Amino acid sequence: MATKIRLQRHGRKGYAFYHIVVADSRAPRDGKFIEKLGTYNPNTNPATIDLNFEQALKWVLNGAQPTDTARNILSDKGVYMKKHLLGGVAKGAFSEAVADQKFNEWLNAKNSKLEAVKNKMVADKAASAKTRLDAEQAVNKAKAEAVAKKKAEALAAKQEAEAAANAEAAAENSEDAQG
Predict the structure, then answer these.
(1) Does a structural domain hold residue 162?
(2) Is 173 within a domain?
């Protein structure tokens, strides 16, 4: 029986969520499977991958053929790196301890790069929020100045009207007194 490591679609329309499964190549995409290896959620940033590493490695070593996306996921998680190193151990190129050390170094380098990307995204998000806040404060300050200017003009116009009314009333009073 030819086995495939592939994705099984779940989730609602427009919001796909996948199970990584080992299935007979003749079985339907979302049908019967032999074993579930993990999950893949492309909706998060970065995509969330939960994989049973040992079981995935066992199936790859036993000859299960992954689909293109499944191969990328397995490669990203280091299953193919471990397979490559185990091949070197089988050929006698180096010992299993050296292979484990190389794999751990690769894994640590990969995790540090991922952390750097995540930290950069957080920093960019904070900087973006700060620039939006500064822009909003500048707009609010400009609006407050415009409102204060309108109020000052209205108050000045009101005072001028009162002064003119007082002058007119004074002129009428003086005419009445003369008259």
Answers:
(1) no
(2) no
pLDDT of residue 170 exceeding 90: no
Where is pLDDT greater, at 94 or 68? Answer: 68
Distance CA 50, CA 57 (A): 14
- Please check whether residue 20 is in contact with residue 70, taking contact to mean a CB–CB distance below 8 angstroms: yes
pLDDT tens, 33-50?
A: 999 999 999 998 889 999
Number of domains in the chain: 1
Flag whether 125 is in a domain. Answer: no
pTM of the predicted model as reported, rounded to 2 decimal places? 0.70
**Range of the structural domain that residue 14 is part of:** 3-67
Parallel, antiparallel, or unpaired for β 3-12 and 48-51? unpaired
Residue for token pair 């500048």:
138
Phi, psi of 23 (to 5 degrees): -140, 160
For residues 156-166, one letter each, b for 16 or more C-beta atoms within 10 angstroms of the residue's C-beta and e for the rest, the string is: eeeeeeeeeee
CATH code, 57: 3.30.1320.10
Q: How far apart are CA 52 and CA 56, in angstroms?
A: 6
